[in-house]
UniProtKB/TrEMBL annotation:
Signal peptide limits: none
Protein name (Swiss-Prot/TrEMBL): Metallo-beta-lactamase domain-containing protein
InterPro entries: Metallo-B-lactamas (IPR001279), RibonucZ/Hydroxyglut_hydro (IPR036866), UPF0173_UPF0282_UlaG_hydrolase (IPR050114)
Pfam families to which the protein is assigned, alphabetical: Lactamase_B_3
Metallo-beta-lactamase domain ranges (all copies): 7-190
Amino acid sequence: MKVTYYGHSCFSVEVEGKNLLFDPFISGNELAKDIDISTIKADYIFVSHGHFDHMLDVEVIANRTGATVFGSWELYHYFGKLGLKNLQPINPGGKGTFEFGTVKAFISQHSSSFPDGAYAGSASGFAFKTSEGNFYYSGDTALTLDMSLVAKWVDLDFAVFPVGDLLTMGIDDAIEAAELVKTKKVIGVHYDTFGFIKMNKTNAIEEFKNAGLSLYLPDIGETINI
């Protein structure tokens, strides 16, 4: 599958000719200043939780592309009030089959609130079964034994984990998370955007290698095949 990284926790996966976009936070990210959001393709947008650094550009991209936006019940209502028309609620434990394959939401251990501080529902991750491969995006999360439930549902080709520490898992916990979900390939996100989540990329890749795992840290705007 082709995965394109847009900075912070935003990335897209191309499946069955459809573009699945995750947690779009681009226009507010100085590190992604060379990304033109008007060119980003999206047939589906998955929002893991309500923090601004995961949903800032949802409205603009969804209005331009007509993408269907997936998120918790609270996110579903929030985006509905903004006037978005193509919305699909999905809470942790729920799953559905669509033209790209089957998606199931899993709990993430993380806070979730809207920009005004209102409750934004449970934070979620999403696992996918598709004809071209299977993957899991944990969303912002701490390490949790609930991740073992992902491996019971799907055999993964790769996972996408936050690795920046302080607000989410760091490298050590992401390595253990990979063991829980039973994958050898991890794409790291949620690092370097802010001063308190700066990370030594070389050391991180080496730590994964020492654990028998591969950590991918694509440049912003880079597309990789995985």
